[in-house]
Amino acid sequence: MIDDILVKKLLSQIVEKDHEENLKKNFRERYPDESTPDGIDNLIRALELPPEDVQYIANDIRETVEKTISPIIKSLIDGVETDEEIAEKTGIKLNIVRKILYKLYDLKIANYKRSKDPETQWFTYSWKFEESELINRIKSDSETELSELNAKLENEEHNMFFVCPYGHVRFNFDTAADPYYEFLCPACGEELEFQDNAEIIEKLKNNIEIAEDNYNSFIEKIDNS
Ligand SMILES: [Zn+2]
């Protein structure tokens, strides 16, 4: 189950957040007077990152999930409880194991119990993987994603769109025809052009199909486990 595509997608969020923070820092340094965009994709676009940097981020996210986060969760599933034992079993550095465990805790998919050793007075943390939280999280994320995609599809199928030839705006018919715009781009004054959105609709339908397939195969896996 831990190798399921939707599980990996959820775990990717942990690594994405680190990259997002770095990119936000870059953005603030470069454009101190502008408001900082949210979301890794928006930041990549706003910073106009070169393809090799985008590739580097994507690889780092994939590798960290596969080589660090998944093995830590697998250890928890196998009943390994403390950070030190996990580090020993996986060969991952202790400080990284701790960092990942707390990030899993933030996502509510790992939890810990603290107990005090009566002799040494040291605290021990016993960690546990919260499988049902992970399942609920993936279910609700997938449902949200699918309903957003379906709403977008409906909007594309039931509207006509007009775009600025220089890419400044994209309006539906009602907005473009509004006397305030009169089919002119508010940024450059150029006449808006009708846009055939058949390709956008095709792409959305394709994305919906992929999202549904991923979701169904996830549900099948948990039903059979
Ligand atoms: Zn324009």
UniProtKB/TrEMBL annotation:
Residue ranges annotated for the HTH TFE/IIEalpha-type domain, each copy included: 50-135
Residues forming coiled coils: 194-221
PROSITE patterns named in the record: HTH_TFE_IIE
Gene Ontology terms describing biological process: regulation of DNA-templated transcription; transcription initiation at RNA polymerase II promoter
Gene3D superfamilies per the UniProt record, alphabetical: Winged helix-like DNA-binding domain superfamily/Winged helix DNA-binding domain
GO terms of molecular function: DNA binding
SMART domains documented for this protein: TFIIE
A Pfam family assignment: TFIIE_alpha
Domain notes: The winged helix domain is involved in binding to DNA in the preinitiation complex.
Family the UniProt entry places it in: Belongs to the TFE family.
Protein name: Transcription factor E
